[in-house]
Amino acid sequence: MSDSYFEEGSLVGVLTPEPLDRVLDYRAPEGGCWLGAFVEVPLGPRRVLGVVWGPGRGDWDPSKVRAVSRVLDAAPMREELRVFLERAGAYTLTPLSQMLRLATRVPGLSDPPSMRKIYRLGQGAPDRLTDARRRVIDTLVEYGGLGFTLKELADLAGVTPSVVKGLAQQGAVEEADTPRDAPFLPLDPDLPGKALTGDQSAAADSLRQAVRSGRYGTTLLKGVTGSGKTEVYLEAVAETLRVGRQALVLLPEIALTSEFLTRVEARFGARPAEWHSGVTMTERRRAWKMIGQGDAQLVVGARSALFLPFRDLGLIVVDEEHDSSYKQEEGALYNARDMAVLRASLTSAQVVLASATPSLETWANAEAGKYARLDLTARFGEAVLPEMRAIDMRAEDLPGQAWISPTLQSEVGRRLQQGEQALLFLNRRGYAPVTLCRACGAQVGCDHCDARMVEHRFQKRLVCHQCGETKPLPTACPACGVEGKMAAVGPGVERIAEEAARVFPDAKLAILSSDLFGSARALKAQIEEIAQGETDIIIGTQLVAKGHNFPRLTLVGVIDADLGLQGSDLRAAERTFQLMRQVSGRAGRAEARGLALLQTFQPEHPVIRAILSGDEEGFWRAEAAEREATGMPPYGRLAGIIVTADEAAAAFDLGTQLARNDAPLREIGALVYGPAPAPIARVRGKHRVRLLVKAPKGAPLQAAIARWLAPVRTSAKLRLAVDIDPQSF
Ligand code: ADP
Ligand code: ZN
User: Could you give the percent of the chain with pLDDT greater than 90?
Assistant: First the structure.
């Protein structure tokens, strides 16, 4: 037999998602097993999930080696995915068992296949053929007798489930039981797409050619919002389907998926598989299986979709590639954009990084010729970028605790008169960031974190944005006990909405902030309402910056353009530049050029000036030059080390000890800074201390860090996390 099959009784090494630091030896069960097979193995008194990772090591007492309990009914994990997990783990310094956890987050993997009801064309004739009933029958005929779940069929036909049920009673539709994990409807890449414009079709041609090459390659697809990036990369998806491979599209927000699914359906005639936290357990299990069998051609998902067991992945699109939500900030600390490139390189796939405002890393990789670059220069349908102007807040006459300047007010007023929409943008959730006592000056903080509690007026509570703890709004000061002196200081979106309601009493307002929507569905409903023009003024956080099309929106007012520039973060300039350009891009359409107004106290700041002038390449070049001069990424490498302990002193002790014993780092020319309190020094009652390692570009950073940290003994009370390529510090 081949070396990927283990006969009954032979030794196999099984990797489990349990926190053990090695692959364990077992005996192959009756019937043998394949390399990569999903299995259940005994571990102490329990049975746990595992994957056959290779031959056993044979370094255990043979009489103590136990047998694999059973082989699960799932396609074995392919070599490509196993190597990807190993390499991604080595890059992020994450234990392999923890990487495996990312790839086995699927419910019911060990359950036997279960059945579900499907509906298909029956023999009987309905007594009365209403319009709705005809649509159901037409749909079933159109799909050549395929069966659907009740919901699928009702959705496809645009009827309520009761219509289908009615037809079933009369035998015109047949109910049948089939295995739950049914394949997805086939997507048709040859349905006509939109007629592309000149540079769109040139870009689509390049991507199609790249896909056909069957080799690895990464392309930056750059173009302002509305320039047709999505149309273009859907053509790359089409080509991938034509050559019989699978495609994955990563989106930064679940809120964007429904709009995207509708577009996929319009282009390919059916919906793709979805993979994100909003997908039900049953659907997840089905998607996971179908993806492994190659019966799901296209997957749309969040960053975790990168770890799905594709059978033959030919294309990964990372939409809004600069988005910080691609960085997983808990557990395995990985950046999905970088891991997409890694996975694609292992499976000879193409990567498309789409963005209006690429990350500096991606921009620099394109400059250096490591990535190809395609530019879409115009907005589709001649829509032009908005005019951008600063409002110098030093010259505006505003009372205390008010933030909408007279200049902005009059521009908003004009839009309302013309029946257009205005957006007021402030990247801060809640009502007020600070609640303080006017008698003693004390601010209300979280009991578990070194963070202020943020007032959320709609919830009538104070909320900690670090740990989620809430408290009622105090009437008396928790510090000095004086009654009636508590005051809200500074603005959040809720407070801007209150101000807007005061200034524009007749306008219809809507607030878009992630915490105000219990579900993706509620958010989607609100977004649709706005898109249909039922709102006059939108007040929003970062949530509005991303990809939604609001056709009547012609004015964007940024309440505090300086907000992101405070602090010393490496990416402060880059982030502010990206965010301001994205938000501004919401304004305007073909017939009416939009206007973006930035309220700022420092209109001469270089970043604000770059935003206003629109000289993007100039901004990137200046930012790149500064990073290069200081050896910062992408011209040097960084790693963050976070020590967490119950006692601040314990965290500092370990930090200090690490900083002193830095020989392994010095050997590769790296420097260590710190220990210093982490930006939020206490979260959920744990104290956090940070060290920063800075290394030259080509240095073997991970190996050096591994040697450096090897002697450290951690425990439940004293934890250590390594963050390679931290997003911020
Ligand atoms: P981006 O992804 O760059 O923001 P989209 O692909 O979403 O841009 O395009 C913006 C809007 O313009 C969408 O509604 C899209 O359907 C439309 N559009 C773009 N290109 C074309 C085209 N060639 N023909 C028709 N509609 C187009
Ligand atoms: Zn807290």
Answer: 49
Domain boundary among 341, 376, 411: 376
Residues 272 and 235 in one domain: yes
Ligand 1 mean position to 321 CA, how many Å? 18
| Strand residue runs (E) in 630-705 | 636-645, 671-683, 686-696
Residues 546, 495 share a domain: yes
The residue whose CA has the least distance to atom 14 of ligand 1 is 226
Q: Please indicate, yes or no, whether residues 391 and 369 belong to a single structural domain of this protein.
A: no
CA of 201 to the centre of ligand 1 (A): 12
**Closest ligand 1 atom, residue 225 Cα:** 4
Q: pLDDT for 578-619, tens place per residue?
A: 888 888 877 876 667 889 999 999 999 888 888 888 888 888
Does residue 82 carry a pLDDT above 70? yes
State the complex-level ipTM: 0.95
Same domain flag for 399 and 534: yes
Please check whether residues 218 and 168 belong to one and the same domain: no
Instruction: Indicate the residue among 572, 600, 624 that finishes a domain.
Output: 624
171 within domain boundaries: yes
694-727 core/surface letters (b: 16 or more CB in 10 A; e: else): bbeeebebbebbeebeeeeeeeeebebbbbbbbb
pLDDT digits (tens, 9 = 90+) for 554-586: 899 999 988 887 766 778 888 888 888 888 877
- Number of H helices and E strands in the chain, helices first, is 20, 31
Residues 420 and 499 in one domain: yes
Where residue 543 sits, what CATH number does that domain have? 3.40.50.300
Residues making up the annotated binding site for Zn(2+) are: 437, 440, 446, 449, 464, 467, 477, 480
Range of the domain at 173: 115-179
Total residues belonging to the chain:
729
What band does 536 get if pLDDT is binned at 50, 70 and 90? very high
Is 202 found in the same domain as 339? yes
For residue 248, the tally of other CB atoms under 10 A from its CB is 29
- Amino acid 611: pLDDT: 86
Ligand with an atom nearest the CA of residue 465: 2
**Which stretches does DSSP call E strand in 537-646?**
537-540, 553-558, 595-600, 636-645
Angle at 606 between CA 600 and CA 609, to 5 degrees: 60
- Does residue 469 fall inside a structural domain? yes
Q: Which of 230, 233, 267, 582 to mutate to test the pocket of ligand 1 (most atoms within 8 A of CB)?
A: 230
Which tens digits make up the pLDDT trace of 388-405? 899 999 999 988 889 999
The atom number, within ligand 1, closest to the CA of 227 reads 3
Tally the domains of the chain.
6
Please state whether beta strands 217-223 and 173-179 pair in parallel, antiparallel, or not at all (unpaired): unpaired
Structure tokens given for 60 = 């255990």
List b or e across 85-110, with b for residues whose CB sees 16 or more CB atoms inside 10 angstroms: bebbbebbbbebbbbbbbbbebebbb
DSSP category for residue 445: B
Which residue's alpha carbon is nearest to atom 25 within ligand 1? Answer: 194
* 225 and 97 together in one domain: no
Task: Return the residue whose CA atom lies nearest to atom 26 of ligand 1.
Answer: 194
